[in-house]
Amino acid sequence: MTNYLDSYKSIFLDIKLRDFWTIFSLIRNEKRLPSYDVIADNIVQFWLEKNHYTKHYYLPLLCVRTGFDLFLRVNQFPEQSEIIMSAINIPSMITLVQCHRLKVIPCDINLDTLEIDINHLKRLITSKTVAIVYAHIYGRCVDVSTLVDLAYEKNIYFIEDCAESFSGFCSCSTESQNFALDMYCPTRLTTNYESTCYTGHPRSHVVLYSFGVLKFCTSLGGGVAKISDFNLYTKMLNLSHQDPIQSTEQYSINVKKYFYLFWLLNIPYVIKPLMYLVRLFKLNHMEFVVNRLRAFTKAPQSNELFLSLRRQPCRPLLAFLLHRFQTYNYQHLQIQKRNALYVIQHLTKTSNLQFIGMKCPIQNFWLFPILVAKPDLFVKILSKHHIDAYRGTTQLNVITKQLTDTDNIPISIDDYHKCPNAEYLIEHVIYLPVHCYVPKQVLNQLIEIVNRTAKEIDQYHLKSKL
Q1: 390: closest CA among 376, 409, 372?
Q2: In degrees, to the nearest 5, what angle opens at C-alpha 272 toward C-alphas 268 and 273?
């Protein structure tokens, strides 16, 4: 039965075939769609309703980086101003800051809580600091209240990057009584319900959400910015209206590419025979797949980056975003979480196998990362057992490494600016095929093999020390 493991990948597209038929129909019938403003207003009204009509403003985007770029453009910070960023993010977010001639200051995280140490953060803030950017990673969500309070105290911006953290809307806005509540939901303050969904801290100046190809509730592109300040929202909205609209043809090309990748990542009957060929010819199939999922395969030049980001989403993309919000089965996220927790409960935690962010107040699971002492060896052994473990599944990287690689170190890397926890994570993380589409019997096979592999490597380490 082991070869059933061959049928599941460490990444998948959170979309179904009928959704592809919908988006192809929207593209084909673009002229029949409502006006651009009507669709955008409908998206905003949907988010307002789901977030209890709090005093926030919503802006549909081409992607998260577009929203971040809008924020930087409207503020026009002086050159060499500093933006403190939690130490793990995607390279293009760092490149974007640098293209605006600003300095990135990395801040390390705790691997159990994924929190930034508030005292350490205080030491990093200088007279040049203009913003703090915290990225919630792997679906785990951190209580950022103390960080927000510090930002307001220092009169600087606080931005939440929730690209990996969308987990639905606050459930108390539904008719079901078996609801779980958002960490900051007003209703939750008088209840004891466990929070599972997260829509950002109410005082964060900007909260950015992604619905890109690998994200939950994917629209194969698109994002949403939640903005707490009306003046900032107005400036970002007006500036975005000056940008050209993404061509429908380009979106169509992307959708067709993802449609082909869907069969390679989501359909077991396709994956299994494909894996036979991959192993027979020793092909690096995941590198091929991941490179086609990424917007950039290498760090882009500033003009290339700005050209790709400074676009408004086309009408079919906006219409598909709205369709996904309205029709998405949010229980799907609970199945994802249930499968992940089942595996975690049955894996044996050792010095050679550790988990990430398991003390976060909200534990959702975008992908299934684990930390192992010898990741290359671990992946090689699992591959022999037909488990598709992979190291480079996401673009996430540690900021200090990127700054060093590009010779663009903002300051001397002294003890205050080193990020040993984040560096350890990136150097030792692997991703396992644990998600909502994997049957329980396959998860049990995976658990047995992963535990056995960790034990073998532990014994090897012990013998080598003796």
Answers
A1: 376
A2: 130
* Beta carbons within 8 Å of 390's beta carbon, 6+ residues apart: 10, 11, 286, 379, 430, 431
Strand partners, 104: 83
- Provide CB contacts within 8 A for 263, sequence distance 6+: 270
Q: Which residues of the chain have pLDDT under 50?
A: 1-2, 173-181, 188-193, 411, 462, 466
Cβ–Cβ under 8 Å, residues 371 and 364 = no
Q: Quick check: 289 and 261 in contact, CB under 8 A?
A: yes
CA–CA dist 104, 298 (Å, integer): 19
Nearest-angstrom CA–CA distance, 255 and 249: 10
Q: Which two tokens stand for residue 186?
A: 């007003």
Q: Are 340 and 60 in contact (CB under 8 A)?
A: no
Closest-CA residue to 431 (of 403, 380, 394):
394
Token output for 2: 């082991």
- Left, alpha or beta for 456 (phi > 0: left; psi -120 to 50: alpha)? alpha
Vertex 351: Cα angle to 346 and 357 (nearest 5): 65
Query: Beta-carbon neighbour count of residue 166 at 10 Å?
Result: 24
* Cβ atoms within 10 Å of 306's Cβ, excluding its own: 15
Distance separating alpha carbons of residues 218 and 212, to the nearest angstrom: 6
Which pLDDT belongs to residue 299? 60
**Partners of 363 in beta bridges:** 140
What tens digit of pLDDT does each residue of 90-126 get? 888 999 999 999 999 999 999 999 999 999 999 999 9
Its pTM stands at 0.91
- Spatial distance between the Cα atoms of 223 and 65, rounded to a whole number of angstroms: 9
What letter represents residue 277's amino acid?
L
pLDDT tens profile 197-228: 788 999 999 999 999 999 999 999 999 999 99
The answer to whether the beta carbons of residues 59 and 240 sit under 8 Å apart is: yes
Q: Parallel, antiparallel, or unpaired for β 206-210 and 82-86?
A: unpaired
Query: Which residue is associated with the tokens 């911006």?
Result: 157
CA-wise closest residue to 11 among 281, 206, 292, 205: 292
